[in-house]
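User: tokens in, sequence out, please.
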């Protein structure tokens, strides 16, 4: 109510000093801190995840499957948890799950990995819903305070975040490439040192997360100490989960959300194991994923800069989908493991193209949800993580039982279905979206 009164107050009543305070506040600092914190945490987790199926084999595959099943179910309640805790507190708490998961890999067994995977599913759900909510909120505030186009600010902020975030694949896997060595008969050395370095880096990332500022007015959104507020929130939980799916726009986006999870899981579980490892070895996984991360980062920031509305999002997403589909067709129809220079170059080229597609999808899906679901940001990003994590879990559980060819066929079908559904969405809401702008 106070903020509305401030907005409606005549400008002539605001002193020069007060106006400077109001209009001079920049949220770019928080974007920088949030992005770097995620970079430090996920360069460790991402690299560990890339190696999970190659080093821990079936235990690693099943642990990741458990993680993403937990992630899926916890995402259904994540929007409520984020509202109760606040975005900043959810982000800080969420970092703990990643630290514990990497620590569990020091002594990988069913006793350590399964509980760590289950808890990380919860932590991941709140950190990602919190990230989407926080970044969208500060983007809107920045656009409002500086009188600039909201869609452009959302695109730029998401572009910066995802570009810096994507660098986790580059830096994390370069560290892996440096510290992890191939031994005799397929063994590896340096794993313990690598994990300890990762834990140290993640600790700095967690500390950094404390320095982002809370969203103004968020403390009043839900009251943790109020039993009535908590009961009301729990009663409304089924409605919060189901309501977004009653919106035809969300239903048309769901295939794209699911595909974004499938293509990520394919890179982590199948691409590294079936394409990269046979061609350039376990230590080469780090190099291939570094290329993947570098192109992911470049395309994230580039796509973010060109995001201005639904039309630009549609064009950019279509390009990313076509790029990834070309890799899947190559794998299905013509790729064979070869020796020599080309045997090394081919997996790196594929990693680069897959990284381009992932950077585009991450940036544009976040911008799309922020623009179309302004009144339920937490719910929209919770849906994103529900469908992504469900798709990722399916890949990890099915990975030991289906062939690479079958997986690639599924991906080709999904990229076609998701792109078609997204184009229908674009045609359906373009006129309404233009009028709203």
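Assistant: Sequence out:
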């Amino acid at each position: 109510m106070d903020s509305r009164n401030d907005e409606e107050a005549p400008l002539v009543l605001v002193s020069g000093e007060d106006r400077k305070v109001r209009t001079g506040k920049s949220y770019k600092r928080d974007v920088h801190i949030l992005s770097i914190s995620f970079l430090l945490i996920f360069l460790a987790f991402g690299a560990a995840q890339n190696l999970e199926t190659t080093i821990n084999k079936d235990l690693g595959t099943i642990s990741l499957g458990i993680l993403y099943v937990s992630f899926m179910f916890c995402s259904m309640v994540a929007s409520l948890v984020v509202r109760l805790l606040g975005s900043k507190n959810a982000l800080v708490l969420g970092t703990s799950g990643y630290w514990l998961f990497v620590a569990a890999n020091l002594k990988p067994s069913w006793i350590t990995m399964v509980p760590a995977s289950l808890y990380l599913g919860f932590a991941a759900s709140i950190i990602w819903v919190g990230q989407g909510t926080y970044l969208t909120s500060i983007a809107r505030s920045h656009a409002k305070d500086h009188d600039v186009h909201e869609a452009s600010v959302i695109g730029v902020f998401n572009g910066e975040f995802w570009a810096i975030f994507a660098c986790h694949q580059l830096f994390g896997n370069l560290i892996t490439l440096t510290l992890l060595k191939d031994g005799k008969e397929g063994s590896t050395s340096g794993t313990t040192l690598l994990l300890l370095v990762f834990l140290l880096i993640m600790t700095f990332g967690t500390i950094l997360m404390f320095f982002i500022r809370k969203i103004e007015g968020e403390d009043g959104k839900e009251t943790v100490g109020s039993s009535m507020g908590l009961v009301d929130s729990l009663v409304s939980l089924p409605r919060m989960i189901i309501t977004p799916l009653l919106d035809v726009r969300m239903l048309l986006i769901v295939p794209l959300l699911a595909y974004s999870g499938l293509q990520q899981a394919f890179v982590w579980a199948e691409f590294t194991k079936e394409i990269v490892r046979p061609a350039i070895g376990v230590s080469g996984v780090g190099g291939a994923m570094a290329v993947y991360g570098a192109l992911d980062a470049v395309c994230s920031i580039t796509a973010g800069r060109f995001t201005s509305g639904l039309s630009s999002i549609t064009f950019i997403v279509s390009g990313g989908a076509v790029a990834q589909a070309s890799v899947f067709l190559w794998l299905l129809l013509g790729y064979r493991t070869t020796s020599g220079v080309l045997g090394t170059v081919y997996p790196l080229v594929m990693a680069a193209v897959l990284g381009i597609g992932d950077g585009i999808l991450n940036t544009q899906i976040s911008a799309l949800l922020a623009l179309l679901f302004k009144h339920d940001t937490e719910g929209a990003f919770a849906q994103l993580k529900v469908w992504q994590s469900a798709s990722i879990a399916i890949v990890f559980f099915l990975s030991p039982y289906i062939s690479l060819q079958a997986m690639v066929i599924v991906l080709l079908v999904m990229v076609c279905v998701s792109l078609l559904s997204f184009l229908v969405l674009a045609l359906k809401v373009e006129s309404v979206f233009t009028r709203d702008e």
